[in-house]
């Protein structure tokens, strides 16, 4: 039904549209991009710092930290990549190999 | 203006309002409780090829591997495949492919099947640390040619029609440009960016070097889905609010709520973007605008879009806030095809493939172009 929208919706649109445009334009500005870039960096640095401290504490009581898990996970990833690469080589070798003619009886 | 109502009319109106209020309450409770998760990607399909996480799905058509059941669909059941070669849809790397088969009443896949096309979809799966080193070459030189071969083999045809959507369009372009001998009869792309200077809103932060690509990559080596979602959200900061308002307005409408839930699920369901591909995209496509300048180098060779000579369709969405017309339009002049068609459709980025407009306006034109550039299947 394409009737006229209810009053609350018209009021909402009257506020949302200009507000949305203003916010979108602000989000495209250089100043916002600078702030966002700083926020991303600060967040990463804070995460690294928290990780460093918790790692020290966890290692003190002989428990693995996120970095240890990450290292192990990286090793598994490397192994998976090697398996993939071997699979490809095997497939390519199988494709290259000439098929034996059927044995004569 | 005074409106006079007879008692009967008044009663009917009150009854209607009460019924709506009840439905609104019921749908609102279901939505809030999250008990009614939408089922997406329901069109029956078979996996015809798989490599690592990438898969090619072939959707079932009548007279092939079984008919498509008309599950809760008000669309007629798809007809027999009437055109060849098959259409291989190449999906983007950052989102889930079920947007193309969102809901039985809102499915681009079902529409194309209904138009008599043999539809296949190249789905990339969900990238994790193993895919972090995948480059544009991995996709354009490795997966894509293999998927095309698998699609041909499954359909028993000599070639395919490629239909790339968004970044899937970029991968299709790179694949065909780098391998002009690929068995591709037609190439169609939808909402595909080539001129990244036309995408300043989305790429501003990385284009001007405020952030390096590595700063957006997480410990798996990929760009996390939250970063992608937030970037899209910044394009329309009040978009979520507006969509909630529309939901409230239509909460009484079961069909609307079902469709809304499916779309809302998809918009919050992005996948990680492989880190190495992201670095190449930022450095070459975004910062150097290398696709437009003709300076894109992959695997030691320059990519020349002019090497694409097959019939070509460039579909753009006029209200696309992610890939604006300015980012997609230059592509038409860059390909070397003689048979080039440009379609500007009144839709948004997602609306091109998943909306009421899609079924009425965009998909019929795309299906029409593909059918017109395909052969008829006898029988």
**Distance linking N and C termini of chain A:** 78 Å
Whole-number mean pLDDT of chain B: 90
Overall outline of chain A? flat
Oligomer: heterodimer
User: Radius of gyration of chain A, rounded?
Assistant: 30 Å
The percent of residues in helical segments of chain B reads 40-55%
Helix/strand/pairing class of chain A, anyone? mainly alpha
**How many β-strands of chain B, per DSSP?**
12
Shape of chain B: globular
Uncertain segments of chain A:
none
Q: How would you characterize the largest beta sheet of chain A?
A: none
Number of helices, counting only DSSP H or I runs of 4 residues or more of chain A? 3
What is the helix/strand order of chain A?
Answer: HHH
Structure description:
The complex is a heterodimer of chains A (105) and B (379). With 105 residues, chain A is mainly alpha-helical. Chain A is 79% helix and 0% strand. Chain A has 3 helices and no strands. Chain A is flat and about 80 Å long. Chain A starts with 6 loop residues before the first helix and ends in a 9-residue tail after the last helix. The mean pLDDT of chain A is 88. With 379 residues, chain B is of the alpha/beta class. Chain B is 41% helix and 15% strand. In chain B, the strands form 3 sheets. Chain B has an 8-stranded mixed sheet, sandwiched between helices. In chain B, strands 3-12 form a two-stranded antiparallel ribbon. In chain B, helix 4 links the parallel strand 6 and strand 7 (184-190). Chain B is globular and about 80 Å long. Mean pLDDT of chain B is 90; it is low at 65-77. The chains are: A mainly alpha (105), B alpha/beta (379).
